[in-house]
Every structure is written in structure tokens, then in C-alpha cells.
Amino acid sequence: SKHDGTSRSENPNAKTIEVLQKMADYYERIQDHWRLTAYRKAIAALRKRTTKITTAKEAFAIPFIGKRLADKIEEIVWTNRLRRLENTKLEPNDEVFHLFLKIYSVGLAQASKWVSQGYRTLDDLLTKAQLTRNQKLGIEHFDDFQTRIPRQETDSHGQYVRDTCSNIDAGIQITIGGSYRRGATDSGDVDFIITKPDCSIEILRTIILERLIPQLFQRGYLKVGLATTSKQDGTKWHGAAALPGTSVWRRIDFLLVPREEMGAALIYFTGNDIFNRSIRLLASKKGMRLNQRGLWKDVIRGKNRKRMTQGTLVEGKDEKRIFELLGVPWRPPQHRIC
Ligand code: DCP
Ligand code: MG
Ligand code: MN
């Protein structure tokens, strides 16, 4: 009714509440009482606020709103903002915000901070803002990283890295994942998935980080390392490279994976991200859990659904077997676009 419309538009958090309400309705339909209650409490708490809640931190400070819901609220606020940006003519500042978001390593918070500090161009940032090393590299190579990589060039990257690697260790296997594996005609970066049968992840890590990567730098292929993260599920190395005779820097990811986890890692690093989310949701509806290490069962959850145990590994190494165990027909990578 008109009255509803008016009162809704008076609440600064109306948009957020609307989305949360839709989610609550969904949880009611699937009889997820725990989430339903959590969402209802959060909605009631949000209705009482007289100012717009835009960050997870603000949301978390409100009674009845937990950490996860707080993150969700921030996501909703920003997604609405992004959706508006895509659908409507851009406000001058939104256009700047959008530009800053495209810089490698820059997220929502950093982009909006720069906008509010009055920066309007990439040049403003380079000359006036306090930048981290990666932000600076991201701006200096902004055009390079924005340029899509033709499929044929990705083939050449594969050949180049495989050639270099075969001289170091002939047992290492390299697969290019991401949009390339899905058959895309061009990609944003090159995602190398690297494994070695009968080899521990520690040894593989040593070979790649201490021999392959230095060698690729020495040959002039690698230009810069941007980030390295190591967890139990493997190692990720992010950097930039250019093929001999070319000058455009390309974003390169090396993802090191133990052989036993290759199936699950292939699913994760092939994506796309939406497909990953939906297949993980499907696993959880079947009482299982899919992550980049494998498919798990008997996952024990405690208070607030917090996972208490990892569960039992059902399958990790065979991509097709994971689909089978989930009861989904095999989907070739080209059909994993949601
Ligand atoms: N991925 C994910 N969720 C994320 C980021 C990545 O599930 N938030 C997975 C799915 C992606 C894969 O990792 O397909 C590789 O990530 P990229 O960012 O390289 O994305 P794509 O390779 O799919 O696309 P692009 O051509 O832009 O690189
Ligand atoms: Mg990619
Ligand atoms: Mn990538």
C-alpha cells in the first residue's frame, strides 16, 4: 500500500531491510529456523535505527547482529550501490569510485576512502595519496591489467612456463584454470594450477618458490611479485609477467596444489565464482561440504552453526568423482558459467 511505501522510504535502512526480508522469507520456506530467527532479530534491530548502517563494523555493534550478518549487511549496502552504478547514469563521484575499484589490490573501502579524501584521478593518487607498493604498481600498470589477454597469448604463457619448468623438474604438471579453462576467448589473468604426483606440498612449494619463480625472473618473464599466501590447502603466488618481445604486463597466479586435492582445486580455480557458490550450496544441502581441498562429510557444527570439525574427506583428487558423489551430472568447464 501507499502507506507502506511511505514508511519504508522514511527508514534509512529500508533497502537493506527489504533484502534481508527476502532472505528471511527464503529461510522460512526451507524451514531453516535458526537463520530465520537471526534475520528477524536483525531486521527488528535495524528498523529502530535512525541512521543508515553502511559498514560491517557499525552493524556488528548493534545487539542481535552477529559477525556474519554484519558482513552480509555491508555487502547488501555496497551491492545496491554497485547495481545502481551499473544501471543508472553515473554521478561524477561514482564514476571516480568505479575507476579506483578497478585498480589491482583496491577494494570498496579503499576506493571510497580516496573519493572522500577528494582524489579524482589516477594521477591524483600517484602524486598526492599515500600508496602501498601494490597500489602504486596497480596504478602504474592500470592499462596493462585492464587489457584482456587473448586466448592465444595465454597458450604462449602456458608453453613458456612449462618449458622453463621442465628443465627444473619434469614431474611437475601445469594446468591453466580460470576463464581460460572455461573456454573463454580472452581472460583477465593467467591462472596456473601446479601439482606434482607423489610429492608433498612443502617440497612442491620449495621447487616453485625457490627455483621456478627465480628462474622466470632471471629470464625476464616475471616482472614483479605482488603477493604470496601459504595455507594448509596450498600456496598462492600472485605477480605480473610479460612474454619475450611484448611489453604489456599480465597478471599471473601460481596456485600450488597437493596431488590428492587436484580435483577439488580444479573445480574451485575453474569457477566461475557463481558456479562455485552454487555447487557448494548444493553440497551443504546434501549434508556435505565442498571446499578447494575436497568434498567432506560428517561435518559437525556447534553453537551458531560454527564448524567444530572438518569432517571426513570423501573425495579430493578426482574432479569427475566429486560431481558423481554430489549426484550432479558432469559439467564440462565450458558449461560452468552461471
Ligand atoms: N574464485 C572464486 N571466488 C572468488 C575468486 C575466485 O570462486 N572470489 C575462483 C573462480 C574463478 C577462479 O577462482 O573462476 C579464478 O579467479 P579469477 O579471478 O582469475 O577469475 P576468472 O579466471 O574466472 O576470470 P578472469 O578472466 O577475469 O581472470
Ligand atoms: Mg583468471
Ligand atoms: Mn586469477
From TrEMBL:
The active site is at residue 72. GO terms for cellular component: nucleus. One of its GO terms (biological process) is double-strand break repair via nonhomologous end joining. Keywords: DNA damage, DNA repair, DNA replication, DNA synthesis, DNA-binding, DNA-directed DNA polymerase, Lyase, Metal-binding, Nucleotidyltransferase, Nucleus, Transferase. It is found in: Nucleus. Its main location: nucleus. One of its GO terms (molecular function) is DNA binding. DNA polymerase that functions in several pathways of DNA repair. Involved in base excision repair (BER) responsible for repair of lesions that give rise to abasic (AP) sites in DNA. Also contributes to DNA double-strand break repair by non-homologous end joining and homologous recombination. Has both template-dependent and template-independent (terminal transferase) DNA polymerase activities. Has also a 5'-deoxyribose-5-phosphate lyase (dRP lyase) activity. Belongs to the DNA polymerase type-X family. This is DNA polymerase. It comes from Cladonia borealis. The chain holds residues 353 to 690 of 690 of the full protein.
